[in-house]
Amino acid sequence: MKTSGFANRQQSSGMPFTKYRPFLDVNPVDLPDRTWPTKRIEKAPRWLSTDLRDGNQALIEPMDPERKRKMFDLLLKLGFKEIEIGFPAASQADFDFCRSLVEDDAIPEDVTISVLTQARPEIIHRTVEALQGMPRATVHLYNATSPLFRRVVFHNNRDETRELAVAGTREVTEYLEKTMGEETVVGFEYSPEIFVDTELDFALEVCEAVMDVWQPSAEREIILNLPTTIERCTPNVYADQIEYMSRNLSRREFVALSAHNHNDRGTGIATTELAMLAGVDRVEGCLFGQGERTGNVDLVTLALNLYTQGIDSMLDISNIDEIRDVVEYCTRMDVGPRVPYAGDLVYTSFSGSHQDAIKKGFLDREQKVAEAGGDENAVPWELPYIPIDPKDVGRSYEAVVRVNSQSGKGGVAYLLSSTRNFDLPRRMQVELSGIVQAYTDKHGGEVSADLLWHIFADEYLPYTSDEGLEHWGMYDLISTSVTHGGGTEDKSELTATVRNNKTGVEHTLTASGNGPIDAFVQAMRQIGEDVNVLDYAEHALSAGGDATAACYVECDIDGQVLWGCGIDPSTMRASFKAIISAINRARR
């Protein structure tokens, strides 16, 4: 036998990887005494939704006013206290939407509206005009600071780039003081756009120059937003950049350090979480990450990641399907089936081993909750493969386990248990999973709960009244009567009428045995059915005096070991029907 070695796997992809330079070769970060790796996230950040600005400008078809208002109302319902609603100077539609919120008195007193502006006087003036009459507002000023943008896009040097930020801040400050009424609490946010690619010393220099103009204090906060406008480095590098800025900024106690992360490398969530460890106070993003290119960071995922660590996210995401429906309507974009927490398949397991573990996990949890007096919140959530209780976000358990050709006994058993209350013995689960496997191998696709029930009932319960089932069984149980003898032997005396559906003959049988099941076995032997009961289980399918019983028997019939199932209000008759079920399967 030959085994493969590591050296044998060192092959070139054939792609021109040498045209790309490692990020740290271009923009090195030297922070050997970093402290963020030893820290823990212990509280939620301040959240800002930019769905109506960054998110909206990334849509194939931007939102119309009705969709914008629907999104705004959703954000309020979720608990957002800071919402960036647009770029008022960029279009009449954005300006009109800002004004409509004021005119309709739609902004709660504790919610801050943020708007974006470039560092040009006429744009700043138009932006401030859109905010008149709002209870709380933030003017968000930005200019690009990275070497690439300085050289290629704006043809600016470092001094000119810094001066653009300073002049813009000065214009905002003076125009706010001149035009904004006392009824509005006004804040200021500055973003050195493309921060992640900007030399750290220069990013710090620009931010300090902006603060020199704004003059932050205890009553005059400044938000410094440090975006991964284009995600180009690993999350730990961005965390180093954030810690460097947080350590070196003067007047840090008056600064709300903010992260605005995109997902170009697929690590937007990790980048943001590490930034929180490194000192970020505030996070900007979009619901489900519906932003530019590969998206802004997903605020729903971030919030629920906190929630699963026992931290109050400060956002109400208890009905995730409603949130998803509104976002999909407003953005005209789908939330994928594998999107964390919200996708159709994220609480679903098809794998047989996963399903078995989940089934056992639910049973374990039920026991612990019962021991806690029925208080679910008193029992920590610990379930194999499911990191969050689906009920906490408005999902049911119905889709947790779904059956296809990859599924095993655990999934089949769980689905029957959760939808029909059937608690099959383990060996019967194995038998049924083989039957379902044969069905999926032949027909393909997924087996829904209804289809699983049809397969089960057709195999074990052909006498049920379910529509579409063929009544194929050789025998039917017509009537039974059992009396129990006295004395030490305590024999059961049975009279049973069994119809042979092939011949049409009804057999009235009498027999005695050590209990009703033994007596019924002796009776069936009288018509040539050599049956031995190997195992037996029963349970109620519902509560109350009129509960129906389900019985399962494992039988040896002429050397075949098969299970049967019976359902009847009488447990005794259910057990007789289960024996008939096993015999019928042997004769099928």
In a nutshell, what does this entry contain?
The chain contains 18 helices and 14 strands. It is an alpha/beta fold.
Secondary structure layout:
Blueprint: H1 23-26, E1 46-49, H2 51-57, H3 65-78, E2 82-86, H4 92-103, E3 112-118, H5 121-130, E4 136-144, H6 147-153, H7 158-179, E5 185-193, H8 200-214, E6 222-228, H9 235-248, E7 255-261, H10 268-278, E8 282-285, H11 299-307, H12 320-331, H13 352-371, H14 409-420, H15 426-443, H16 449-460, E9 475-484, E10 492-500, E11 506-513, H17 516-525, E12 531-540, E13 549-557, E14 560-568, H18 571-587
Parallel strand pairs: 1-2, 1-8, 2-3, 3-4, 4-5, 5-6, 6-7, 7-8
Antiparallel strand pairs: 9-10, 10-11, 12-13, 13-14
Helix pairs in contact: 3-12, 5-7, 7-8, 9-10, 13-14, 14-15, 17-18
Nearest-integer average pLDDT:
91
In CATH, what is the class of the largest domain? Alpha Beta
Radius of gyration: 34 Å
CATH level 3 topology of the largest domain: TIM Barrel
Description:
By secondary structure, this protein is an alpha/beta fold. The chain has 3 domains: 45-331, Aldolase class I (TIM Barrel, Alpha-Beta Barrel); 352-460, Helix Hairpins (Orthogonal Bundle); 475-587, Double Stranded RNA Binding Domain, CATH 3.30.160.270. Helices cover 38% and strands 18% of the residues. The chain has 18 helices and 14 strands. Strands 1-2-3-4-5-6-7-8 form an 8-stranded parallel β-barrel, surrounded by 7 helices. It has a 3-stranded antiparallel beta sheet with strand order 9-10-11. Helix 9 (235-248) packs parallel to helix 10. It is elongated and about 105 Å long. The mean pLDDT is 91.
